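name: query_chain
kind: protein
chains: 1
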Amino acid sequence: MYQASSMKMPMRWLTNSLLILLSSWFAGVTHAQQILQMRDGETQSARISQREVSRIAVEGARMKSVVGARGDYDVQIDQDIGQVFLKPVSGAKLTRPINLFVTDDVGRTYGLILTPEDVPAQSVLISSRNTKSVRRGQKETPYQAAIRELVRLMATNNPDAHGFEVVDHMREIPIWNEVKLTLERTWLGDDLIGERYVLMNITADEVRLAEQEFMRKGVLAVAIDKTILGPRQATGLYVVREASDGAR
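structure:
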């Protein structure tokens, strides 16, 4: 976790007829490219433009599907080149991060938390760092799909989850002096446990968060609604871990 006062760091659908033009435009103009080194099932943060089109691509593969909140952006896959384009909706107030799960044609799924900023067109390139090779055309495994679905259930705070016992807590968890962390609810399954938290910045300074700060042994996925918090602002935090890693 970083505070602005102590360290300065960089902030973390178009119609089918326009997609080819957009692809050519991105190839011909100068725009910022963010390279994310990611493993299958991992979640990371990136920035997108509040006012221009941004794109997402996977190195050496093609995008197959996109799932997630789309309220302030039109999102569409260009099937010809296998890339995703995000266009801000006209008149929308683009400040809240959006969460996407993107799956490539190799079968790998990546979680993205995209923060709109007042910057030019952005390009997000996912570079897979999986240690195991995956054959092209391999589908998402049931285990990977279960993790993705559990994150979706927690993000929508859905208690009607087949196969899970849902328990309410509202218990404060000691963490850092700068934030207050409250465990709201858990989803308890035979193989997976999901934990939904609310994390609040209790300082007068900006606080910056990263999913990696909440990774520990047994944790399979971490997602954060908002990675940059102003004073007294709060965000949702979602953690998926193995059911064997702790009491059920």
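note: The mean pLDDT is 77.
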